[in-house]
Amino acid sequence: VQTQSASNPSLIATFNITTSGAVPFTADDVIARVIANDQLIQDVMADITVVSNAEWMPPNTQLKLWEKGDKQKIQVISPNPGVYIREASENNGTPVNMARSILSFDVVTNVYTIKSVQEGQAEEHPYEIENIDYAKGVIIKSEHYLKEGNYVCLVIREYTNFANINGIWGFQSMTETMYDGAGTLTYTTAHTYSNIQYNTGISDGEFE
Question: What's the pLDDT at 17?
């Protein structure tokens, strides 16, 4: 629903094309399309249904979401009612420059597959692979390969059921799946969004 990627626009693009034919755009161009669509969103409200088999989550949860910039309010309707507010961060840290390479481009679907690693990174992990629909300017799938110490895991997010609301492309369904380093499924969580509203002018007081 909201921004899918907070990518730093200062990027280094390298090319390792696994498909034949010329690629119309660079990695910078493709990421810029996603950022441009995200920047159309000033605020968003939505109802969310979450279904999960994660051991730390209820199997079914009903939520309401308010989001404006980096402020967020979540109201849990069921099973454990409550309100949780994330205030705007005063320090977003030092921007991280990413080196990106186009792995493939599908001329039929206009989908790019892009791999991202931190600039100067020596180790294989962590890295991220994103499938991006250039026509819509949206990420349709992301694969995050994470490493902390000896622990390695893969988190896959698939975004589906896109709708154009007032000129903004947004997903209405998102499924997150996590695997451990051995490839064993850890959990699957599905989010379904409804009553999505963009740019209604949410007051800052909503997050107090």
Answer: 47
